[in-house]
Amino acid sequence: MIAAAALCLLAGLVPPAASMDVAGRALVQVAIVRQAESSTLVAAGAIRVVLPDGKRRPLEWEGPLSLTPRVGGLKLADLRLPTETRLEPQEGASIKVGADAHRGTLILRLDPGQTVTVIEEISLEEYLEGVLPHEMDPDWPLEALKAQAVVARTFAYANMGKFRKDGFDLTADTRSQVYRGVTAVNENVRSAVRQTRGEVLGWRGELLHVYYHSCCGGRTEDVAQAWGGDPKQTPRPLRGVKDPWCQGTPNHSWRAYFTWSDLMSAIQEKVGLPGPLSSLKIAHRDAAGYVLSFAARAGRRTVSVRSSDLRHSLGAGELKSTKIRRLVPKKKGVEFIGGGSGHGVGLCQWGTKVQALKGRSYDKILLFYFPGSVLSVVTQ
Ligand SMILES: [Zn+2]
Questions:
Q1: Residues whose CB falls within 8 Å of the CB of residue 325, separated by 6 or more in sequence, listed in order
Q2: Ligand 1 centroid – CA 296 distance (Å)
Q3: pLDDT per residue over 369-378, tens digit each?
Q4: Span from the CA of 346 to the centroid of ligand 1 (angstroms)
Q5: Domains in the chain: how many in total?
Q6: Quick check: 11 pLDDT over 90?
Q7: Residue 266 belongs to what domain range?
Q8: Which of 61, 92, 114 is the endpoint of a domain?
Q9: Are 236 and 346 found together in one domain?
Q10: pLDDT, tens digit, for every residue of 49-65?
Q11: Dihedral sign, CA of 348, 352, 358, 360?
Q12: CA nearest neighbour of 2 among 199, 151, 155
């Protein structure tokens, strides 16, 4: 446990949350259904509907409620509602949307294209409970989940309002962080969020824009190398570190085989090839070992192929990362020998798990992956 005195306060340096609840807690608005033709809601417990004049009335309905657009508003089962309507689950109640149960206020909204969007408004700390089990195994050691809670919280604050023009703060998918309400939340997850309440990573008095990934394969990546930018400008905590901790974990080293025909069609999704593909070589790689581009020989020409494009076309699950150590040409295809899983920037989750199993605390793990950063507390 880190002493409270060692925590620095990041007052007023974080982007403002959407709003606050009566207890002064930061609220976040997450889109859980976007521009759908319809959605099905199932209420469990007492739910109140907020009417346009601000009056609340109980939602009395058993079984699934179908939410659909109508001209000039929304329809929920046989209720005709205005273009934006709030549903408030009371203490202990929840609303299932699709497969997931939600305890926050749901904002039902009619989109301009006659589709429906469902946004959940929830306190940021409860939101994190709904993120953690889908971004890390909820049965991993507590210190690993606490490190994940701090990076997920820092990420959420840093991206707060990113989708404001669409009418909410964050999406519930990988464009933000995967969020699925109270589904899969366990005591381990609740403890990890509670024991790190309000804690974020700062750098020079500001919020650090953090990232995380599954496994770095031995060295984490410089953020500027991963997404463009001048590496000289990279803040020290995001330059990448040598990571001995994830060695021996499932995706630290891997082999993947692709036929010439798979490779050719993947390359052609992005670049035209003047003839059949006859060879593929690594052209450039960065200091952390990630391949930046390949040289593809086709006909009489050599074409440059960006590794991120090739990974995208082959599928991120098929080619786990662009950290490719060697290519081994075979008769009918190429074997890729590589390491790691994901983009490699920031916290390495498998390395985090191993550090936690060896008894290292979450603050030490965070300072290992983000050297020079300061564990801070958000005050609003
Ligand atoms: Zn690692």
A1: 289, 337, 338, 339
A2: 30
A3: 999 999 998 8
A4: 10
A5: 3
A6: no
A7: 254-338
A8: 114
A9: yes
A10: 998 788 899 988 778 99
A11: positive
A12: 199
